[in-house]
């Protein structure tokens, strides 16, 4: 039975990517350093994921952690990373660029969309950091991206559900306008992310009617290290976290789909 929903799982390792596919994810968002919110993964990770997976791959294009206002050099990096993804046949890319005033950088976004074509493009949660959320969504639509990932301008999607519901309605009206004008371009998709899990998915759906969901399905594995120097930790991690390896729980992905599909039984 075809699902009414699409589920994207964000991953930052090849093992996690394989687990996401095993859990029947519709696609993955491939990053590095999820603990930093995700940055551009290495070329090796991108190419290996393409070799190992049968589901679509969306690659994060983010040259560093932190805000989404980028220098000229960082913008050049983004363009080169997008071109690499297109050259090796990746399905799509994920990015977001803002101006110093907290608005969508439409000029740069349109440029990246053109470079990425015919790959799919998702504008990520940079929208949640904008000055005017609803104007930002309109601006993103004008840039002709395929999808937007959002938590509704809040830290967690459950708290921003009322805004998500509103932009889904705006997108619906835009779809109807395009249809009446015989515009054959695809309508923008709204994907809900941040804090989504099988326990709150039904509530989020009831509040938003969203059909696209993004989550990490996080689990932890113990490191294979037997010797552990607890006096030293890397990157500011607490010593007890040094030997915890983040991954994806395939069963959580399956559970989310089961929870959502029950809404249509």
In short:
By secondary structure, the chain is of the alpha/beta class.
Number of domains: 1
Oligomer: single chain
| Separate helix tally | 8
C-alpha-based Rg, rounded: 19 Å
Mean pLDDT: 94
Q: Which fold name fills CATH's third level, the topology? A: TIM Barrel
Encode the helix/strand succession as letters: EHEHEHEHEHEHEHEEEH
The CATH architecture name reads Alpha-Beta Barrel
> Which overall shape is indicated by the principal axes computed on the Cα atoms?
globular
| CATH H-level superfamily title | Copper homeostasis (CutC) domain
What gap, in angstroms, lies between the N and C termini?
11 Å
Content of β-strand: 15-25%
Would you kindly provide a written description of the structure presented here, covering whatever features stand out?
It is a single chain. Helix 3 packs parallel to helix 4. The longest helix has 20 residues, at 161-180. This protein has helices spanning 14-22, 43-52, 72-87, 106-116, 133-142, 161-180, 201-208, 250-261; strands at residues 6-11, 27-30, 57-60, 92-95, 120-123, 147-150, 189-193, 212-215, 218-222, 244-248. An eight-stranded parallel beta barrel has the order 1-2-3-4-5-6-7-8, surrounded by five helices. Strands 9-10 form a two-stranded antiparallel sheet. The radius of gyration is 19 Å and the shape is globular. With 265 residues, the protein is an alpha/beta fold. It has a single domain (6-221, 242-264), classed as Alpha-Beta Barrel (TIM Barrel), CATH 3.20.20.380. 36% of the residues lie in helices and 17% in strands. The mean pLDDT is 94. 38% of the residues are buried. Strand 5, helix 5 and strand 6 form a beta-alpha-beta unit. It contains eight helices and ten strands.
């Amino acid at each position: 039975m075809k699902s009414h929903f699409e589920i994207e799982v964000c991953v930052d390792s090849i093992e996690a990517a394989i687990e996401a596919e095993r859990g029947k994810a519709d696609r993955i968002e491939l990053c590095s350093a999820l603990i930093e919110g995700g940055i551009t993964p290495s070329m090796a990770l991108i190419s290996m994921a393409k070799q190992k997976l049968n589901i679509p791959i969306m690659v994060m294009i983010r040259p560093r952690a932190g805000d989404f206002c980028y220098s000229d050099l960082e913008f050049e990096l983004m363009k080169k990373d997008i071109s690499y993804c297109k050259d090796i046949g990746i399905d799509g890319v994920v990015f977001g660029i803002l101006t110093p005033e907290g608005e969508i950088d439409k000029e740069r976004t349109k440029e990246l969309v053109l470079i990425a074509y015919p790959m799919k493009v998702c504008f990520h949660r940079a929208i949640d950091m904008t000055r005017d959320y609803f104007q930002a969504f309109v601006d993103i639509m004008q840039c002709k991206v395929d999808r937007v990932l959002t938590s509704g301008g809040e830290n967690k999607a459950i708290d921003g559900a009322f805004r998500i519901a509103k932009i889904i309605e705006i997108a619906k009206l835009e779809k109807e306008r395009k249809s009446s004008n015989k515009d054959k371009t695809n309508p923008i998709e709204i994907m809900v992310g941040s804090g989504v899990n099988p326990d709150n998915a039904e509530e989020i759906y009831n509040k938003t009617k969203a059909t696209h969901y993004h989550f990490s399905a996080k689990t932890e594995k113990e490191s294979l290290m037997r010797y552990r120097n607890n006096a030293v930790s890397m990157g500011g991690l607490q010593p007890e976290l040094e030997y915890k390896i983040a991954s994806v729980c395939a069963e959580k992905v399956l559970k989310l789909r089961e929870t959502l599909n029950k809404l249509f039984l």
